[in-house]
Design brief:
With 175 residues, the protein is an alpha/beta fold. The chain has six helices and five strands.
């Protein structure tokens, strides 16, 4: 099992933004993390958490297989890292960029972490917890609501996933 430093590293193929970047630039970082996840044999989903000043706080891709952890989704890893860096599980005034609509577990974590905004790429009609199957971040019975924007670089995000699973069906990497 890798140590924290290998799990919490930054994507080497994409430059960090020292100044405020565009939503497309942040999603490009998430896509780079998704590609790295695919190279590890993980479902290619990547996430990036950005603060109000436009600084990337944390970024990662899925690591459920690598860590033998069903909770090691890209979003969860990024929230955990950001919480440790900030010394607080609450992450107000942040935006999470993720390549696929979060599942119910991840959407719930976003609510608990008080993330302000979620921007995702492709919808997940089979497991989406934000718009497709459930609306976790929009339920007024919860103590926090998320601003949600979907569809940013959705085609590229969706193609990455489709290609990954097509390769798996043809006998690609074991998972």
């Amino acid at each position: 099992m890798p140590t924290g430093s290998s799990v919490l590293r930054k994507a080497s193929s994409v430059a960090d933004f020292s100044a405020k970047g565009s939503p497309e630039q942040y999603m490009a970082v998430a896509l780079a993390e998704a590609r790295l996840a695919a190279e590890r044999g993980e479902v290619p989903i990547g996430a990036v958490l950005v603060d109000g000043a436009g600084q990337i706080i944390a970024q990662n891709g899925n690591r459920t297989i690598e860590l033998c952890d069903p909770g090691a989704h890209a979003e969860m890893l990024v929230l955990r890292q950001a919480g440790r860096l900030r010394g607080n599980y609450r992450l107000p005034d942040t935006t999470l960029y993720v390549t696929l609509e979060p599942c119910v577990m991840c959407a719930g974590a976003l609510v608990h972490a008080r993330v302000s905004r979620l921007v995702y790429g492709a919808v997940d009609p089979k497991g989406g917890g934000v718009v497709s199957l459930f609306q976790v971040g929009q339920d007024t019975r919860l103590n926090h609501l998320l601003a949600v924007e979907g569809g940013l670089l959705a085609e590229e995000s969706g193609t990455l996933l489709k290609d990954f699973f097509r390769q798996r069906r043809r006998g690609g990497k074991e998972g």
